[in-house]
């Protein structure tokens, strides 16, 4: 191949000189493509061995070219070359191989030549929302909203100029249409995918079942959209077949009736998705058939062409609008940003992202940029190797049995080695390690929860406990470190034997005679790799000083029986968001009804790092078009005791009862803690005056089932905490009353919140004013927004926390509301005014 077409003489001379200085060994170079896609601006990335490449290719970007030499002079790409070329090729980068004299070249992947994009026409975008155009004509009762036009134009500008757009659009603006229309036109005209990510299932279902089908029918552009689900939502046909044929040997725990129902369903389902099931399987049963990336045989699998997951991926690859949730998006980003476009990723490549319900991004990013290991998770993993009670069950006994059955085709030395590794090394070691894990995790939980400082439980919020310096200096922690050191050493030993087993099996099982062992070998490799990741996280948690992070223990239920989870959370996600999202993707739109505090975006910008992107950041702030002064009655009973008072629960129960009678049920009662929720739920449920109402409590049923029943029953009341403050959309007469029991401040002793407040105070700021208060205001606005969902809705919002009118900071909450009248009068008078509002009479309160 003509090398001068791809590398100039000067660049070739540079390559040759560097290779000679490396004594003819392999050298990895990176350059950039000029306008003719020839390489220029070459520099050395690594010397010695191409296997070092995967550690650095995460920095490769579109238009870059990787070059390395083959000292042998044979330019055919190795398997490692192909893997790297596949990864960076998905990013738009090229990959060349040259000989040591740099006079011959093999182009594995040509560099990507930037194509000219077709910019969005702002007038065209605006015209799509004019009353005489196709979309408005198909919408019953459509009214042109200037706020929607402003937002659509701002989104178009974000696409045209590769911007980050921060857009708050109050309820009723029509933000989903405002971002979908320009996104669809851009995707179709430029052959690009746009990801739309949401936080809640409700919005996801609205997009995929209502908004997008409507636009497919009423836009001139023809386009496909796909709902993206995580891999674990799909069944694996191969694993199902294994469960059916070999489950009795592989799994110690068994629910035969449920597993039989799953196998029967798999044989008949067209979707293969968990949501297609007509029953909710236990996690232990589902995990036996769920698709998993690291045990997938991919194209080598007999079921590959009919695989539910890969069928969904093919459909996604053909779509230009991908709808996902934030958790799935961040999981996909983690894979792509670590190793490029990897087969383990869920979504095909994309460069434009819409983050709806973006007020949740800091919490989601905190989870994905942190680390976590659980007692339940590692015990399940060890149980896959060998049963905890029945040592004849599990992957290792299964493999050993297969080897013995085929002993006539295996060398005696190999059989002897496998017997030694499996029976005398690994299985006993797993038993020892399992006992150590239970002891270490439970001891850690007990210690951290029981330690006292100044006669007060240290850093405890429910069942969460922070690992502080005080904890680490306690006598018990020294014992924990010794136990963890012993555990790490024993797991390392176990891991070494597993690696040896993997190598010997891999070397031996390389022919048709061993095909039946290939699936087990893939599982063994995957589980061994998972064990390695567990070791790394365990070492980080117990032995590393985590500057900029907080370590904590999370439990549910009693410490003795709960699945103890050890967690590491970053104190700030700002840099990680820039490095992994804002700097990498061409357009990022962040939108929600609640992003600002007192009309400014300062809080959200600082929390997720948008203050570092001012050069390409665009801000849009749009108020709701609803008439809250006419549609809503907002009241604060001025005579209630403060939340810290011993009489608070009793007094608010009285006014809650009266307000429920006034609204004839049809209410959400929102709490910030389960303790107060349960106390008032039991008290009011047994109140004879409320016996006609269907009272439901969060946790008794799945949220979607509670909401479904609430919509059907005209006399329903839901008592809810965190997840009912947002993402629940009930319009019309079904919901007429929203009661906010307390201002939603984050628990100050939550491990992550506490550590962040300490950091702010240490740096000279006010944690309350700059962190706790703004966060509470945003959550308060979400709760307030549950009531009025369209221009015909009417109802009342009662705020039972008098700090909103008696504390100076209460003004921040009131100023965050849309233009409305807040009635601040004693409870009995307030209920009378509330009744007048519902009856359509004039109210006089102020």
Describe the structure in your own words:
By secondary structure, this protein is of the alpha/beta class. The chain starts with 8 loop residues before the first helix and ends in an 8-residue tail after the last helix. Strand 4 (94-98) and strand 5 (105-109) form a beta hairpin. A seven-stranded parallel β-sheet has the order 8-9-7-10-18-6-19, sandwiched between helices. It is globular. The model is unreliable at 50-55, 340-344 and 452-461 (pLDDT under 50). The longest helix has 39 residues, at 412-450. The protein contains 30 helices and 26 strands. Helix 5 (146-160) packs parallel to helix 6 (175-190), helix 6 packs across helix 7 and helix 18 runs antiparallel to helix 19 (518-543). It folds into five domains: 3-109, Cytidine Deaminase, domain 2 (3-Layer(aba) Sandwich); 117-216 and 319-369 and 574-625, P-loop containing nucleotide triphosphate hydrolases (Rossmann fold, 3-Layer(aba) Sandwich), CATH 3.40.50; 225-315, no CATH class; 386-570, no CATH class; 628-838, Rossmann fold, CATH 3.40.50.300. 45% of the residues lie in helices and 15% in strands.
Keywords:
30 helices; 15% strand; 26 strands; Rossmann fold; seven-stranded parallel beta sheet; Cytidine Deaminase, domain 2; 846 residues; single chain; alpha/beta
Radius of gyration: 30 Å
* Count of all domains: 5
- Biggest sheet details: 7 strands, parallel
Using the coordinates above, name the CATH class of the largest domain.
Answer: Alpha Beta
The CATH topology of the largest domain turns out to be Rossmann fold
| Overall helicity | 40-55%
CATH architecture of the largest domain: 3-Layer(aba) Sandwich
Unreliable residue stretches: 50-55, 340-344, 452-461
Mean pLDDT: 89
User: Strand percentage, roughly?
Assistant: 5-15%
Count of discrete alpha- or pi-helical segments spanning 4 or more residues: 30
**N-to-C CA distance:** 84 Å
| The CATH homologous superfamily of the largest domain | P-loop containing nucleotide triphosphate hydrolases
Strand order of the largest sheet: 8-9-7-10-18-6-19
Q: What shape does the CA trace take?
A: globular
**Helix-strand makeup class:** alpha/beta
Instruction: Report the count of strand segments.
Output: 26
């Amino acid at each position: 191949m003509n090398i001068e077409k791809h590398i100039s003489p000067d660049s070739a001379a540079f390559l040759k000189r560097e290779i000679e200085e490396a004594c003819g060994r392999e050298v990895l170079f990176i350059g950039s493509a000029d306008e003719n896609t020839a390489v220029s601006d070459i520099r050395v990335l690594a010397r010695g061995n191409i296997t070092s490449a995967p550690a650095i290719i995460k920095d490769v970007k579109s238009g870059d070219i990787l070059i390395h030499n083959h000292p042998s002079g044979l330019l055919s790409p190795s398997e490692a070359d192909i893997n790297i070329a596949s990864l960076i090729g998905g990013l738009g980068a090229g990959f060349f191989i040259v000989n040591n004299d740099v006079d011959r070249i093999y182009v594995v992947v040509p560099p990507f030549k930037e194509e000219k994009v077709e910019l969005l026409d702002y007038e065209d975008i605006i015209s799509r929302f004019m009353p005489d155009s196709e979309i408005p004509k198909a919408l019953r009762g459509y009214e042109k909203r200037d706020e929607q036009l402003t937002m659509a134009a701002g989104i178009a500008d974000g696409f045209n100029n590769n911007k980050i757009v921060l857009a708050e659009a109050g309820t009723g603006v029509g933000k989903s249409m405002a971002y979908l229309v320009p996104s669809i036109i851009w995707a179709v005209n430029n052959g690009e995918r746009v990801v739309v990510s949401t936080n809640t299932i409700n919005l996801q279902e609205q997009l995929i079942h209502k908004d997008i089908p409507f636009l497919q029918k009423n836009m001139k552009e023809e386009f496909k959209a796909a709902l993206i689900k995580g891999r674990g939502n799909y069944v694996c046909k191969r694993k199902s077949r294994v469960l059916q044929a070999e489950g009795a040997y592989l799994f110690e725990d068994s629910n035969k009736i449920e597993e039989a129902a799953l196998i029967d369903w798999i044989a008949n389902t067209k979707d293969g998705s968990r949501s297609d099931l007509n029953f909710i399987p236990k996690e232990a049963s589902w995990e036996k058939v769920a698709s998993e990336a690291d045990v997938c045989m991919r194209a080598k699998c007999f079921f590959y062409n009919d695989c539910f997951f890969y069928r969904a991926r093919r459909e996604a690859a053909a779509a230009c609008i991908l709808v996902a949730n934030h958790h799935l998006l961040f999981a996909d980003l983690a894979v792509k940003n670590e190793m490029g476009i990897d087969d383990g990723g869920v979504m095909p490549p994309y460069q434009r992202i819409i983050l709806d319900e973006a007020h949740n991004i800091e919490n989601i990013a905190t989870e994905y940029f942190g680390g976590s290991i659980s007692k339940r998770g590692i015990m399940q993993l060890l149980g896959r190797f060998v049963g905890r009670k029945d040592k004849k069950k599990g992957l290792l006994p299964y493999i050993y049995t297969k080897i013995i059955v085929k002993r006539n085709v295996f060398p005696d030395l190999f059989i002897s080695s496998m017997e030694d590794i499996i029976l005398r090394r690994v299985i006993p070691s797993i038993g020892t390690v399992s006992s150590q894990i239970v002891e270490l995790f439970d001891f850690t939980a007990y210690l951290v929860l029981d330690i006292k400082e100044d006669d007060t439980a240290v850093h405890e919020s429910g069942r969460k406990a922070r690992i502080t310096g005080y904890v680490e200096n306690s006598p018990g922690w020294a014992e924990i470190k010794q136990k963890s050191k012993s555990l790490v050493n024993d797991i390392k030993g176990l891991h070494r034997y597993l690696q040896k087993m993997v190598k010997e099996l891999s070397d031996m099982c390389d022919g048709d005679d061993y095909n039946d062992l290939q699936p087990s070998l893939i599982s063994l490799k995957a589980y061994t790799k998972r064990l390695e990741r567990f070791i790394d996280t365990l070492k980080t948690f117990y032995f590393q000083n985590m500057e900029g992070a907080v370590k904590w223990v999370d439990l549910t239920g009693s410490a003795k029986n709960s699945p103890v989870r050890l967690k590491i959370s970053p104190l700030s996600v700002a840099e990680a968001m820039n490095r992994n999202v804002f700097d990498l993707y061409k357009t990022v739109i962040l939108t929600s009804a609640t992003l600002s505090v007192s009309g400014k975006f300062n809080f959200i910008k600082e929390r997720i790092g948008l203050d570092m992107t001012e050069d390409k950041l665009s801000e849009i702030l749009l108020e709701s078009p609803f008439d809250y002064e006419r549609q809503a009655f907002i009241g604060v009973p001025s005579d209630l005791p403060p939340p810290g008072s011993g009489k608070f629960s009793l007094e608010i129960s009285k006014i809650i009862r009266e307000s429920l009678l006034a609204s004839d049920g049809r209410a959400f009662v929102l709490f910030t803690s389960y303790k107060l929720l349960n106390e008032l739920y039991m008290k009011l449920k047994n109140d004879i005056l409320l016996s006609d109402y269907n009272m439901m409590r969060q946790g008794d049923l799945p949220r979607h089932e509670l909401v479904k029943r609430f919509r059907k029953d005209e006399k329903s009341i839901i008592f809810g905490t965190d997840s009912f403050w947002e993402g629940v959309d009930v319009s019309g007469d079904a919901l007429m009353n929203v009661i906010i029991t307390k201002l939603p401040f984050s628990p100050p002793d939550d491990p992550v919140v506490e550590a962040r407040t300490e950091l702010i105070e240490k740096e000279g700021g006010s944690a309350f004013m700059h962190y706790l208060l703004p966060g509470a205001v945003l959550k308060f606005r979400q709760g307030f927004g549950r009531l009025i969902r369209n221009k015909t809705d009417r109802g009342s919002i009662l705020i039972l926390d008098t700090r909103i009118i008696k504390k100076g900071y209460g003004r921040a909450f009131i100023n965050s509301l849309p233009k409305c009248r807040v009635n601040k009068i004693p409870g009995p008078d307030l209920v009378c005014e509330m009744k007048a509002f519902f009856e359509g009479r004039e109210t006089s309160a102020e």
